[in-house]
Amino acid sequence: ESLESVLENVEGRISVGYPAGGEEIENLIVQSQDVVGNKLLRLKSFKKVRQLYLVSNLETLSEGLLDGLDDLQTLYISKCTALNCIERGFFKNKSNLKKLSITNSKLQLQPG
Fold first, then answer.
1. Residue 86 structural domain
2. pLDDT (tens digit per residue) in 23-33
3. E strands along the chain, which residues?
């Protein structure tokens, strides 16, 4: 799968410059105004991403969305106003993740 097709699926158009293949990108901003499903959001081509800033209308953060992003240290999720669920296993194998920020969502956390 080419990086161009990944970016087309993420945002609908290519609007940024990037190195060939995208394997060297460490900081990535993904923005989409459309309601997209996790299956359309393909991030695994960006294997060396350390900081991911996600602005999207996802309703659910599904297990597998972050697969392949083993170096991810910081995850910012902002303006995901439709977000109401984080599936069990979403953070699986993310031992390097040190910072997490989720703002402007419909998440309702239960004690426990």
1. 1-112
2. 778 888 887 76
3. 27-31, 51-55, 60-61, 74-77, 85-86, 99-102
